[in-house]
Write a structure and sequence with these properties.
This protein is of the alpha+beta class. Helix content is about 40%, strand content about 15%. Bound molecules: zinc ion (2 copies).
Length: about 120
């Protein structure tokens, strides 16, 4: 005999899991963009006020995240547009990930992960 509440709970858990997975999927209109590649870099951007929690502050101090690590570090992430991802570190988290575009920021991120490209 299976308890009906147990079944309902399991169904809810599966639904929640699917919802989270769907959130992480690249929306159809953004399919031409790469989000989770090893050459995609993201900067963690919190809202700096007295509600900034230690967890989010620590993530900010980590500076850059490689695209291929995003779904592991931020299991609840939500793609907003081609250059913005909601981090969803915890409920009511207001932090975002901003794409590090080619240029100064990109070079800095690249160097941090792979060393100076000029010296390779
Ligand atoms: Zn936080
Ligand atoms: Zn946050």
């Amino acid at each position: 005999m299976t308890c009906i509440h147990h079944v309902a709970g399991a169904v809810q858990a599966v639904r929640k899991y699917r919802q989270q997975e769907a959130q992480k999927r690249v929306p159809d209109d953004l399919k031409s963009h790469s989000f989770f590649g090893s050459m995609d870099f993201w900067r963690y951007i919190p809202v700096f006020d007295n509600r900034l929690c230690p967890k989010c502050k620590a993530l900010f101090e980590h500076h850059f995240f490689q695209g291929s690590h995003l779904r592991i570090v931020f299991p609840y992430l939500e793609i907003r547009d081609e250059d913005t991802i909601n981090a969803n570190v915890h409920p009511n988290c207001r932090c975002e990930l901003w794409r590090v575009t080619v240029g100064k920021y990109y070079d800095k991120a690249y160097t941090k992960f792979f060393g100076d490209p000029e010296k390779v």
